[in-house]
Amino acid sequence: MASHDYDDARAVTSGPGYDEQLGYDPNFVPDSVKSFVVHLYRHIREKNVYEIHQMYETSFHTLSDRLFKDTPWPSVDAVAHYVDNDHVFCLLYKEMWFRHLYAGLTPTLRQRIDSWDNYCSLFQVVLHGVVNMQLPNQWLWDMVDEFVYQFQSFCQYRAKMKNKTEQEIALLRQFDQAWSVYGVLNFLQALVEKSNIIQILENEKEGLEQFTSTDGYDYNGGSNVLKVLGYFGMVGLLRVHCLLGDYHTGLKCLQPIDISQQGVYTLVIGSHITTIYHYGFANLMLRRYVEAIREFNKILLYIYKTKQYHQKSPQYEQILKKNEQMYALLAICLSLCPQSRLVDETVNSQLREKYGEKMIRMQRYDDEAFAIYDELFSYACPKFITPSAPSFEEPLVNYNQDAYRLQLKLFLYEAKQQQLLLGVRTYLKVYSTISLAKLASYMEVDEPTLRTILITYKHKTHAVDSDGKVISNADVDFFIDDDIVHVVESKHAKRYGDYFLRQVVKLEGVINELDAIKLD
């Protein structure tokens, strides 16, 4: 997963001084790197996906940690002659080169622009050339993930205009198309369309084609690169639209992937988490709380059960961070829409541990409650971006927080409206029928105001799903007949299975401990 959270320091200018400063010679290639590129090149030519995956996931990170902790890898020109100057391999090498640079160092503006050019060349080859390769899903996911991450990083960097040098401003003016929002969206959309992935997924439902069943790989001598990039491109589009605050469009882009099922997106942990995090967040912002709760619950339970297997993964820290953010989002959803029956007991106990106290305070309608909503939203939301180019007129200002402040304002406005309805919900939970006059007197309002409040409750507890159907988020609903409010509370069968399973596991643990005790 590529979302490295470093703060974009003001980029230093590139040039020989920069390299000398780091004691870095871009043309020096250690023997271990020669061996790495030669073997990786050979495995790519032979379509040996298993070996490519091992080298990409393990060797690349091992060499990076050992030799290139504080410096970039050798330049592409220095390694090109070891791989027959192969154009496509050199583009792939540069993609990894820039990713390593972004992860551990601060890229200069020139390097940001060069990385954009490299992605343009790489995607052009995939879209319009003949690519006869099979690459691991992990690498193809990382390409899309890093592409969107670098776009987000560039927008944040460009929005901090205050301390830019004249040289940086001149470069920004000159390369105004680099990382433009249209360019990014066009590439992702082109990958989706050219790969024909939407049709492939449709055909697979009817048994006419295989994609998910082969994990996206092509076992008939073809290439998986365009198809899988197109597939992950849909997740990339969801993420970009969420960063822009366009949640409807984002969810529409993801629609061809059935997230109620396992799929290629669940094979790579980074892709699985990114998909559900953005899907859940978009549903939260569209007031589809029940859908958000369901999906957050599923992924948090999955991470809880499997995180120990990812401890050695380069993505482990990012998995833990997203896990914490999704607990915060789940706390928000359950405070606005108290449907804890949708949450598994394991997730619920973790949630109570992390946010139990805060969730109680969030039920109140006061400044402290809204301060907690603000805190959790700010911690867990995506890093929103303003995609438009800056004004180069003096005085230069920073506008990198503008998009975030707007989304926070919209969210808090909605949270305040939802909190106003908590009083109604409290009374509806207590009664099965109650007259309008009596309810109005309890709530200390007149009847016309009460009718307005009840209509608002109906409106705010319903949302429109992606198929255009009206769906309910309410655990307590009602109808009015002859000035009497009739309450309809949904009854749900209790699930005892989970409880017994947990007790069995506890008992087995106790038995094992007792067995281990040696009596004299």
From TrEMBL:
One of its GO terms (biological process) is formation of cytoplasmic translation initiation complex. It holds the Pfam family Paf67. Its main location: cytoplasm. Keywords: Cytoplasm, DNA-binding, Initiation factor, Protein biosynthesis. GO terms for cellular component: eukaryotic 43S preinitiation complex; eukaryotic 48S preinitiation complex; eukaryotic translation initiation factor 3 complex. InterPro entries: eIF3l, PCI_dom. GO terms for molecular function: DNA binding; translation initiation factor activity. It is found in: Cytoplasm. PANTHER family: EUKARYOTIC TRANSLATION INITIATION FACTOR 3, EUKARYOTIC TRANSLATION INITIATION FACTOR 3 SUBUNIT L. Belongs to the eIF-3 subunit L family. Component of the eukaryotic translation initiation factor 3 (eIF-3) complex. Component of the eukaryotic translation initiation factor 3 (eIF-3) complex, which is involved in protein synthesis of a specialized repertoire of mRNAs and, together with other initiation factors, stimulates binding of mRNA and methionyl-tRNAi to the 40S ribosome. The eIF-3 complex specifically targets and initiates translation of a subset of mRNAs involved in cell proliferation. This is Eukaryotic translation initiation factor 3 subunit L.
